[in-house]
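Task: encode each sequence below as structure tokens.

Item 1
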Amino acid sequence: MTGLNRRHILSTIGWSLVLPALALPASLSARAVSVAFPTDRFRLRRTLERGLGDGKAVIVSREWDCRFVKLAAGAKIDGQQVAVSVETPPALAALADIERRREVTGLFPMELDRSGAIVGWPDDNASIAQAVEQASREIDRKAMEQATQADVRRYLAELGKTTASLVSQVPRDLFFPAPGKRSESRKLVLPGGGTGTYEVTISASARTSDGLLTQSERRIVTRIADSTRVSRETWSVA
């Protein structure tokens, strides 16, 4: 599989009908030393949440049964989807049914190098701090582009797409992350003189025994007037 195809799969395994993908990696800091790949099978879970406002959200969770297979230059991961759950407002019930029946294909097998990083995936962000800063710059850029628009609803719709896309990515060091947490909060200036805020948070934790992921999360919270929207991606291993 080519790097381009792999990138496309990894960036669109969320709810493709609702969560638009933006080619912006937000990886955590990859380990610089070789890792010891566990021999036991494990369950990988990914949950994507996109806030719709008024306390409503679209939440899609998938689980894969996985195992590491050692290779000369690292390892590959074999995995099979074993569960999916979808929570939506009643108005999106038809789309929820489609997503429940859909099985993600092409994600596995996935190859890792000796440091545990996904092969063929960019690593433009070398740390949690840089990942937060890049996400923050992208939101600022979108806000500036839309600042001249008189239609506040269009502005909010574009901002919602951007924040959802920023969390809908697979970190290159997903399975063996460097533990840590970083947050950044900024103000938004809305068309017409209104204001709001957004907060970007990226965190990860790993097992002390072998460095395997326990949980990672990327979250963007947007607050405008009395409306709060949350876009969040969480990966966990059990």
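Item 2
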Amino acid sequence: MLPESINIGTKNFSTMIIVLLIGIISFGFILWSESKKDGFNSDKFFDMVFSSLIFCGVLIYLLERLVSWSTIYRPSSVILYFDQDILLTFTSIVLFFSPVLIFSKKFKWSFFRIVDIYSMGFSILLMVISLGSYLIYGKNEYFISFFAFLVLYVFVMRHRGYKYISGMIYSIFLIFVSLIMVLLFRRGGYLLFAPIMVTISVLNLYMRSKKTMSKILLPKAFISGLKKKLVSKEKRLEMEQKALIDNDPYLQRGRETDNAETLDDVMEDTGKTITDARLGIVRTAKIQVRKALTAIKLGSYGKCEVCGKDIDKARLEVYPEATTCIECATDQSQMIDVHEDEILEKNI
């Protein structure tokens, strides 16, 4: 178990603050890696995250005043008496997403893809906080909460983009947090906050379904032909990925005991850089293919996941893994990363 505070010199620091900092760093790393994987421009994406932090911080300050009021006056109603931890968790999870509406509209980004990324980050943050709370306070509900978020992340969120339609992870996450709140943390305000999160989850699913509920007029034979191409490409990419891993210079047998010359080391490092770059391109391509296959399975293939419009048939014939129309795909904010990959492929 960990102490509740740590002495560094003459100063006393709360261990929970250190746990929170580790959680925030992990949260930021997940946002960065997943947004990069999805092709979002990193600078603009973190402008959005920073705006979310400012917006959420101001509201948390105002709500802390509300907590102070409830502490002083002690309302008898279990709904009106707010527990501070529950209130701050609810505020962070729900209100942190508000600036996403503005940025997704401004940059023509998919709102549902962004909230899925945020949900993954929050699951890691809550996982770290739960584990730290268990190690400090020793309460079993914190360990159960940690294990539950770990299972959620491994078995659900890691399949984002190709097993679950975009936006669904956000709804699953909100319902999951609501269940943990009701089952493990029955504190002041949970009877109010849990139903609100479930309601937001249902509304999110409804809004997501509106983009895909219109019937897509693509011939079955046309979709069947493209599906075969996608399955074939997925197998080819898996073989290419395996070959790249097998030929990784850093994974070759006897490398640790090899006394190579400086020039050989430089060549090895260059080969490693090229291999990693190719692996990144292959993995990104695999995710895109799986997303298209999932769209076929769900019946939403041929609809732009950003604006909801029909994707041109000619575009699908040339690029069957397309999940966005040409207008949204050529948005400059996302094309920067795509252009970098194209340059890298040419140099390789």
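Check on item 2: The chain has two domains: 5-210, 220-252+260-347. The first strand starts at residue 5 and ends at 8.
End of task.
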